[in-house]
Write a structure and sequence with these properties.
The complex is a heterodimer of chains A (361) and B (294). Chain A is built from 8 helices and 20 strands. With 361 residues, chain A is an alpha+beta fold. In chain A, a hairpin with a 3-residue loop joins strand 16 and strand 17 (313-320). In chain B, helix 3 (72-104) crosses helix 7, helix 7 (164-187) packs antiparallel against helix 10 (237-243) and helix 11 runs antiparallel to helix 12. Classes of the chains: A alpha+beta (361), B mainly alpha (294).
Amino acid sequence: MLEIKEVSRYFDNFTALDKVSLNIAAGEFFTLLGPSGCGKTTLLRLIAGFDQPDNGDILLDGKSIIATPPERRPLHTIFQNYALFPHMTVTENIAFPLRMVGCTQAEINRRVAEALEDVSLPDKGNHYPDALSGGQKQRIAIARALVNRPRLLLLDEPLSALDAKLREQMQLELIKLQKEIGITFVYVTHDQGEALALSHRVAVMNRGTIAQVDEPSRLYGFPNSRFVADFIGQCNLLSGKVTQLQDNRAQVELEGLGPVQTAIPADSTIAVGRNCTLTLRPEKIHISSRVSHDEVEAHFKGIVHDMLYLGDVTVYKVELANGMLLEALLANSSPGRARFFEIGDQVEVAWHYDAGHLVMD
Amino acid sequence: MQQKSWQQRLLTLPPMGYLLIFFAIPTLIMLFASFRYTGEYGGLAPWYSIENGTLAFDLTLENWQRLFETDIYLRLFFKSIGYALVTTLLCILLGYPLALMIARSQKKHRDLLLLLVILPFWSNFLVRIYAWMIIFSPNGALTQMINSLRDLLGLAPISIMYSATAVITCLVYVHLPFMVLPLYANLEKHNPALLDAAQDLGANRWRRFWRITWPLSLSGVYAGSILVFIPVLGMFAIPDLLGGTDGIMIANVIKQQFVESRDWPFGSVLSMVLTATAVLVVLLGAKIGQQGAR
C-alpha cells in the first residue's frame, strides 16, 4: 500500500537517508525503530510531505505522492507533543480536518461525537486542551487524526511524553484501536520495547539505512547483524571465526574462549574462515553451581561479578576465565526464596548449541 | 488566587505612588477645574468667596454645557477617533506582515531586523516630523514626482502638505514600531508544530493563517492597537505641523484652550472627555484581549 523506493535525503554533507526501500501493507502496524539520528523521523516527514526526498519515490496505492502537498495527502500525523490547537475546544480541534474538506455541520457534529466516543472521552468536548491531562491530550490528538479516516496514520514518538504506567496503557489502547479501525499505522520510536510490543513488523534503521525489516519475534530471535542484536534487547556478543561446518552445525572458535558448537542459521552466508558474532540472549544462558557434562552444551566456568535484582528476574554478570563479562538472566519464579548466587560465587554458565544465533560480520 | 505577601505589596508601592502623583491627582485637579470659572486674565478664578461672612462656592456647569452648544467639538472628537482608528488599522496592515516575517526569519537575523524597526527612535521625534514636512512640501521630491505623473495623465496638481493624508501618513510612520514590537513578541512564541499539524490535517496556506496564526496572535494585535490608538488620539505635534486647518485634531484644540485662549476650565472639559475615551478604549481592548488569549 505504501511503497518507499530507494529514497535518499541529504542535508548539507550529512546523509540522513541512503536509498531506503520499504513496502508497508494495508492494515499493518509498522514501526520505524532506531537510535536518534538514524533517519526515522526524516523518513516520516518525507511520507507526511513536510520534506522532499532528493532521490527516489514514495508511492501510495501505486501512485507517487511526492508532488502532493501535505494538506492533500490522505494521511495524518500524530506529533510528539500532540500539537493540539490551544485556542480551540476539543470539539473544534477534532472538527478541524472535517471543516477543511467542507463537511456539513450536522455531519461534523455526528462524527466528532463518534470520535470522542471512540477514545472514551465523550464529555470533554467543551474543554480546552490546557485543561486536559497528558493521556487525554494524546487521545484527542488520535481522535483528531482519525476522524476523517485517513488511509495512513503516522505516529512520531507519540508516547514519549507520558510516564511509564500511562505509556503501557496507551500502548494497549493503540493496539486495540488499530485493530478495530484497520487503518495502516506507521510508528516512529527509539524505544525497542515499544516497537516489539506494538508492531506487526519493525524496520530497524541505522545511519540512514534499513538494517533489518522483520516481525518482532524474528528480530529478537534472529537478528541479521551485530547492530540489530545489540539494539534490540540485551544481548551478549561473542566474536569468533567459523572453523568447521557439519550438517546443520557450525564450529566457531570464540575469541579467548575456544571452540563451541552452534546451529547454522537459515539463509546465512556462512563459510569456513569467516569472522562472525555469536549473539546470545541473557535468558538463554543457564547459570548453575553444578558442573554440566551435556554434549550439546557449551559451558564455561566463571565468577559472579555483579548482579541486578529486578524483582521478577535477576541479572547476573559472570566474569569468565579470560576476563570477559557474560550476562545471564534468572527468573525468580520458584516458590519461596529464589536461588540467588552471591557476588564472588563460583558458577558455571552454559548454553545449548541452538540457543545462540550466529551472524556474519 | 493566593494571598499576596507584604513584600509583594511593598513592590507595587513605587508604581502606585507614581501613578497617584502624576496621573490620578492631576486628573482630579483637571476634573475640578472643569467646574470652575475662567479668571480675569485667563487661568482659573477662585472657587469660593466670602462675602459678609458667608461662604459662597463659585462653581458652574457652563463649561460642560459649552461642549454641546455647537457640534464642532464633538465632530472634532469623532474625527480624532477616526484618525486614530485609521492609523491603527494601517499599522496593523503594515506591521503584521513585517512582524510575521521577522518572527519566521532565521534566529540569527531576528535581533538585527528588530533593531532596524526601532532604529528611527534614535533620532528626535520633531526632527523626523520636519523631515516629513520637507518630503511633503510643494517642492519636495514626493509632491513633485506625484504631480509630474498627474501632469502626464492630464490631471491638476495636488498638494499633500496640510492635509489629512499628510497627518495620517506621519502618524502611521511614528507609531508603526509600537504595533510591530508586541506583535513580534506574540508571533515569535507560536509553536511551529501547530502549523505543521494544521497542514497535515488539510489546511492550505490561507487557512493555516486565518485559523491558527491569526486567532493566536489576537492578544498581540490588541496590545499593539492600544499602544497605537491611545497616543494617536492625544497627538497634537503632528497635526500642528503637517495638518494645517484640515488635519487638526482634538488635542490641538485642547492645547489652544490652555495656551492661546487661556481658557483653562474648558480645556479641562475637553481633556476629561479625551481621557475618558482613552480609558474606555483600554478597558475594552483588555477585555477583548483576554478573550483572544483564551
